[in-house]
Amino acid sequence: MTQMPSIPSVSKESDDVELGRIFGVLIDHKWWIILITALSAFIGIVYATLSTPIYQGDALVQIERRSTVSPLGDLSNVLGVEDFNTSAEIQILQSRMVLGQAVDRLGRDTLIMPVSLPYIGDYIMRRGIPRPSFMEGQPHIWGGESIEVARFQLAAARRGQVIVVERANDERYRVLINDQPVGIGEIGRVGVFLDGELELRIDAFNAPPGAQFQLFKMHRSSAISSLGSRLLILEAGGRGTSTGVLQLSMTGTDRQEIEDSLNAVVETFLTQNIERQSAQAEQSLAFLEEQAPELRNQLKLAEERLNEYRAKLDSIDVSSEAQTAIQRYIEIEGRLSELEIEEAELAQLFQPSHPNYQALMRQRRHLEKEKAELNARVNELPAAQQEVLRLTRDVEVTQVIYVNVLNKIQELQVAKAGSIGNVRIIDRAQVGYWPIAPNKTRIVILATLIGCMLAVGGVLLRALLRRGVETPEQIEATGVPVYATIPLSDGQSKLVKRVKHRRDRAGKQVISGILASLNPTDTAVEALRSLRTSLHFVMLEAKNNLIMVTGSSPGAGKSFVTINLGVTCAQAGQKVLIIDADMRKGQVHNAFAESSKGGLSELLAGKVEWQEVIRPTKVPGLFYISRGEAPPNPSELLVHESFNRFLDGFSPEYDLVIIDTPPALAVTDAAIVGKRVGTTLIVARFRMNTPREISAALRRLETAGVTVKGCILNAMENKAAVGYGYHHYAYK
User: Which chain regions cross the lipid bilayer (predicted)?
Assistant: First the structure.
């Protein structure tokens, strides 16, 4: 069996995206890419310049192990209490107790905001740009304008409401809420507004009349949260080690405000730490000061009872054993008194079940047992000596305890005065001179890269979406030869004007001149001359001298090809007739600066004679017939036998008859006319008509029995994408 020859077929369009074509597309649109990239870089520069700079300040504090200057020593260390917990100190620093006191100290719940111009207002104030004359009376604040608010008290119910202060004449100001005036105040004096809910004192208002500032009183919780969100605390040192050194950092737009806020937080933390360290000594001191008057009264009563008993017995000797017992009584009672003080201190720290608390109670029970044994031995002495011993013991023991309590009071007073806490400020707040944000260099680089990527992406996306033909090979792959490639003409672009209609806001393009007559040396006209030569040999085998020029869709340039091809043929000495068979939107008459009335539609409808529709032109040998007024049934007119008689009767009188028809995919007019002509040409526009669209038009014409002789690639551009991407065309 004889093998059928393989038919060349084009590869799928999705496989046609080559790196070379992509590179060529980028070269073709290089100025767009450069322009968009430059515009994006400019926007980045403007944004970086106008952005408010963000500064950062830091401070350094050290958390030391607790120590005291008290001569009593450090009870917590003796008892084994762990007191070095950096995490707990960080939590205290971030607590509402510390931050709230800092807010109260600095008045951070009050915000004073200038009314600024959109986008550029902050930049104007930072740069100190003075107010121009045309901005007089405007509320926006300019460089060098300020306000000093000495007092701003607002009722709790109105917190969160914006109070606007506007400069007035004669050292006065107006107060507005929601653009409604609520009163007028004098600079330097306290003003009361809103029935006492607002108290305001402005010491200075350096701005012209009309300038406005906004006053805002935040809720205390919101002010604390705002301050805490800007505070960052980290422990210095390596991972896994506890150095006790904390680094506090804070960011903001105002360098002085950052420094004041950080110092306020650090100083508040230091103050509360000292108060916390001295709280234990203060509680012990209060307990001893409460016991001292009672002990003094007990000592006085004991001395009085001893003196009365001795006076009653006149004289009595105390044995050495009794003296020893009295001395031991004093030691035991003194130790019990100390344990009582220690128990009061431990009760503030631990529960009774704590081991340290239990150890102290065991010492106390041991001393009380020894005291009971001593009392038993004393009970064996004579009655008189027992009484003297007891009275003397009461005096001596009470005196020792009282003196001990007085000594403890003095020691605790010294300890309280000497408490310095375990927090030490190493570095006070300092704000860097250079802002940490925005990073202008990074912003400009990112903006430039983003602009470049958007430009490249847009160009590539547009190229992917617009898959129109770019080379004759793409058209020939559909099975139709290309007779001519007409380059894009700048001269023709100047001859096209846009006409708007009421129903068509975008308007439509209308040919207002003939390129072949106005600029015969144009490259597009030279290409049409080559087409004229090719048609001479093609039409040798045609059944008549009728040529139909159509396209697959509007805008391909079929009317341009029809008119200028007719002119070039007439200039070559031929007698040419151009027929505008696009009775819907034909515009051949516009090229000759005439009206469409009295044309083909009237002729086919029998309203005029043929002598009235054929119009001569300024080009010798060139005649044309306009489309006429748009009829309601163009296709029916073309099917009518009168159209056939007209063509058969007048074609012999001309060397060439060129018929301009509507697009083949839009209506059936082209298929109707194509049956009556000997040569059919289809026009495709560079990068507009796709190969699939051209194939669809060819199939529709072939279905109607019309054979397309060839194609004309119109508006061809010398693009790098064509050179790089289609240096070859693959067939399968």
Answer: 31-50, 443-465
Torsion angle, alpha carbons of 155, 156, 162, 165, to 10: 20
Which amino acid, one-letter code, is at 631?
A: P
43 vs 39: CA distance, rounded Å: 6
The span from the CA of 466 to the CA of 449, in Å, is 25
What is the pLDDT confidence band of residue 510, given thresholds at 50, 70 and 90? confident
Tokens 């405007």 — which residue?
138
Per DSSP, 706 falls in state: -
| Among 169, 170, 178, 185, residue whose Cα is nearest residue 137 | 169
Query: Which residues touch 570 (CB under 8 Å, ≥6 apart)?
Result: 576, 619, 620, 621, 622
* Cα–Cα distance for residue pair 679/546, rounded to 1 Å: 6
Continuous H helices in 162-254 = 220-229
Percent of the chain with pLDDT over 70: 84
Indicate the residue type of 575: K
H helices of 583-687, in order, are 588-591, 600-604, 610-613, 634-639, 641-650, 669-674
What are the start-end ranges of the H helices in 167-253? 220-229
Confidence of residue 70 (pLDDT cuts 50, 70, 90): very low
Mapping DSSP onto H, E and C, the string for 12-27 reads: CHHHCCCHHHHHHHHH
* Tens digit of each residue's pLDDT (9 = 90 or more) over 614-640: 999 999 999 999 999 988 888 899 998
Give yes or no for a contact between 174 and 184, defined as CB atoms under 8 angstroms apart. Answer: yes
Q: What's the pTM? A: 0.65
Say whether pLDDT at 466 is over 50. yes
The DSSP output letter for 437 is B
Residue with tokens 């079940």: 353
Contact 485, 716 (CB under 8 A): yes
Residue 125 neighbours by CB under 8 Å, 6+ apart: 114, 116, 141, 142, 143, 145
Query: What's the mean pLDDT in 537-552?
Result: 91
Q: What is the mean pLDDT of the chain?
A: 84
Write out pLDDT tens, residues 92-104: 999 999 999 999 9
Q: What is the 3-state secondary structure (H, E, C) of 480-510?
A: CCEEEEEECCHHHHHCEEEECCCCCCCCEEE
269-290, pLDDT tens digit by residue? 998 887 777 766 677 777 777 8
